[in-house]
Amino acid sequence: MSFFEYMMRRAAPVLFWTSVLLLVGTVAASLLLQREASPYSGDSALDARALLNAIVQGLSAAVWPFMGAGLIWTLGKHNGGDQ
Fold first, then answer.
1. In principle, which of 10, 11, 19, 25 could form an S-S bond with 62, CB 3.0–4.6 Å?
2. Is the pTM of this model over 0.85?
3. What is the CB neighbour count within 10 angstroms for residue 74?
4. How far is 73 from 37, CA to CA, in rounded Å?
5. Each residue of 16-66: pLDDT tens digit?
6. How many CA atoms lie less than 13 Å away from 68 in the CB half-sphere?
C-alpha cells in the first residue's frame, strides 16, 4: 500500500488532526504577532481582545478541515466503512 492510499484510507483522522494543528498554530502565531507589535503593553483589555481575536482566527482556519473530517467520517460510517 502506497503512502497516498494509506492517507486516503485515513482521511478523516488526518483532516481532524490538521484542523487541531491549524487551530493551535494560528492562535500561537496571532498571540506572538500581537506581542511583537506591542511588547510593553500592560493593558489587560488589549491582551484579552488579542486572545479572543487569536482564538477566532484559529477557529476560522480550522473549520474547513474539521468539517471535511466530519463529512468523511459520517459518509464512511453510513456506507459501512471502517473510517
1. 19
2. no
3. 12
4. 41
5. 888 888 888 888 888 888 777 666 665 555 577 778 888 888 888 888 888
6. 17
C-beta neighbour count of 73 within 10 angstroms? 17
pLDDT band at 79 (very low <50, low <70, confident <90, very high): confident
Q: Could you tell me the three cell numbers for 11? A: 482521511
**Residue holding cell 493593558?**
43
- Count, residues in the chain: 83
Q: Which amino acid is at 28?
A: A
Cα–Cα distance list, 10 to 21, 58, 62 (Å): 17, 24, 18
